[in-house]
Write a structure and sequence with these properties.
Oligomer: single chain
Number of domains: 1
Bound molecules: flavin-adenine dinucleotide
CATH architecture: 3-Layer(bba) Sandwich
Low-confidence stretches: 417-423
CATH superfamily: FAD/NAD(P)-binding domain
Radius of gyration: 21 Å
Strand content: 15-25%
Length: about 425
């Protein structure tokens, strides 16, 4: 069952994805029905590959159906850093892939006519304080040097774009945008089915075993034999593949959605319908949807929440940004798990012949997971690993994984305290 959220209430119905009963055979078995798995299945099916997808709950149940809906360009590390880390050739390809990812998402939506409130109105990366503003200015310069449609906005221009004086500056990137994430996930599922992919919801992959040159995936009421496997489970990764779960840190992020805001107020607080995320310690992100609902996202409890969740921090923060919103009614609250990596890059692995895993988008998975799914399909249709636009690396479990997770949580708390102190 989908957890309650604004998206669960307003998305178009899901296509039928009945549980798998009995034995099945496919060229590729995809495990996980979020953007990574659905995009891989769709691109494989479009290429004529016989693909079967297993999802423990239903397509879009994970982070893909619950996120902020921000289609953000780029990777977490700055462009210069990416080229330093990976060299000028692969680095430049990684930048082209990640900064081009929103265009790829919007093109896919147009190609398959997915009704998901998609808008390409840009992304604002806003900086609190002069040091952050300097960092954002450097990022903007690096993007502009590479020909990106990016501008640095000073404090006054940022205030004009956001209706608040909280920010010392910002970067505006015209490539970004937003969408209704569950509608997008369901649209991808529908498109994959239309292209011939078989999708099974309510079907957890319980274990994997080598069988001849391929693999057998055991499920509660059957099994799948496949030549290749795609592991697309991100923040919900379980113990299916050794050490994969320990290679990322799953973190909950929370969202609160308001009742629709009157048009004249909405225009004052967000004159442009760009999505915004804050650069710096602890990310707060927000956007105004098609119905003028404000969707505020950020840290919150590190366990699943319900509608009565204690995420008052986000609501108070909205009032701090725009005092005229005091008294606004907030109708929905929910959360979900995303996966962080220690090096801040998304990870693509090939831990055994015919097995591919992609995960760890560090909160940028709407665009990145979609293009990683496409990269996976390229690889499984014969592209050599070194020609992919993301490096294939080995799975590196984080040493002292449990403690590292505690470290991330401690940082979240530190951010909360610093915010209380107004630092
Ligand atoms: C609250 C929140 C806000 C976010 N906001 C943004 C944003 O605004 N912009 C952005 O770019 N990114 C955002 N993200 C991150 C983004 O949503 C994720 O990076 C992206 O959705 C990851 O997609 P995925 O397909 O890899 O994983 P998921 O969508 O999490 O899908 C994984 C799926 O695997 C399934 N699964 C797990 N184990 C098994 C198994 N053994 N067998 C079968 N199925 C299994 C799960 O049920 C799940 O459905 C946000 C995330 C959250 C939680």
């Amino acid at each position: 069952m989908l957890p309650p959220s604004l998206y669960a209430e307003t998305a178009p119905p899901a296509p039928p994805t009945p549980p798998l009963e009995g034995e099945a055979r496919a060229d590729v078995c995809v495990i996980g029905g979020g953007f990574t798995g659905l995009s891989a299945a769709l691109h494989l099916a479009e290429a004529g590959v016989d693909v079967l997808l297993l999802e423990a709950e239903e397509p879009g149940w994970g982070a893909s159906g619950r996120n902020g809906g921000q289609v953000n360009p780029g990777l977490k590390p700055d462009p210069d850093e990416v080229e330093r880390d990976w060299g000028p050739d692969l680095g430049a390809r990684m930048l082209a892939l990640s900064y081009g990812a929103p265009d790829a998402v919007f093109a896919l939506i147009r190609r398959h006519q997915i009704a998901c409130e998609a808008r390409q109105e840009g992304t604002i990366r806003a900086a609190i304080g002069p040091a952050n503003a300097e960092a954002v200015r450097r990022t903007a310069e690096q993007c502009a040097r590479r020909g990106g449609p990016v501008r640095f906005l000073d404090a006054a221009e940022t205030a004009a774009m956001t209706g608040t004086e909280r920010y010392a500056g910002a970067m505006f990137d015209a490539r970004g945008g937003d969408l209704h994430p569950l509608a997008y996930a369901r649209g991808l599922a529908r498109a994959a089915i239309a292209q011939g992919a078989r999708l099974h919801g309510g079907t957890r992959a319980l274990s994997l075993a080598r069988e001849g040159a391929g693999w057998r995936v055991t499920t509660p009421r059957g099994s799948v034999r496949a030549d290749s496997l795609v592991l697309a489970t991100n923040g919900y990764t379980d113990a299916l593949w050794p050490s994969l779960r320990e290679s990322v840190v799953p973190v909950f992020s929370s969202i609160a959605a308001s009742a629709p805001i009157a048009e004249e107020v909405a225009r004052r607080i967000m004159p442009r319908r760009a999505s915004l995320y804050e650069a710096g310690r602890i990310t707060v992100y927000y956007r105004m949807d098609r119905a003028n609902r404000l969707l505020m996202g950020g840290r919150g409890p590190q366990s699943p929440i319900r509608d009565t969740a204690p995420i008052g921090y986000l609501l108070r923060y909205a009032e701090r940004l725009w005092p005229e919103l005091r008294g606004l009614s907030w109708t929905h609250r929910w959360n979900g798990q995303l996966a962080m990596t220690k090096d801040h890059y998304p990870h693509l692995h090939e831990p055994a012949p015919g097995v591919i895993a992609a995960l760890g988008y560090n909160g940028r998975g709407v665009a990145m997971a979609t293009v990683m799914g496409r990269e996976i399909a390229r690889r499984l249709t014969g592209t050599p690993a070194e020609q992919l636009d993301m490096p294939v690396t080995s799975i590196a479990p984080i040493p002292f994984h449990r403690f590292w997770k505690l470290g991330v949580l401690a940082k979240l708390w530190e951010g909360r305290i610093r915010d209380r102190l107004g630092l």
